[in-house]
Amino acid sequence: MIRLISFLKRKPGSTHAEFLEHWRDVHAPLIANSSAARYVRRYEQHPAAWPEDGGSEPSWDGVTIQEFGSTADFWAHVQEPDFPEMQADIERFIDTSDLPWLLVDDANVVIDGSSTGDGARDPEI
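Above: the chain's sequence. Below: its structure in token form.
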């Protein structure tokens, strides 16, 4: 399995709240209902955790993670006829001048809190 991880920053002049609203209410359904979605096994939106104490805002507004069966599936999804519509929407709310992304392979899991059920490390490690 391949994952696409993208760091997202809102367009200059927009607020974090406006970014989140567009990302969740406009962009997500656009992707979910596209022909390109047939290549996507999973699509996750992870908004940045903003400081509760009024501290400085994060450098990124969120991260998206998409899962594909292979790199070939990733490249096939960008060739779908409706992908340009999704790309045009990205241009509406994301600062594409600073849009780092990376395709990654399966994870090397170092700690998995679910193995003990309580979030503690497995004592055998």
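Residues 15-49+71-105 form one domain.
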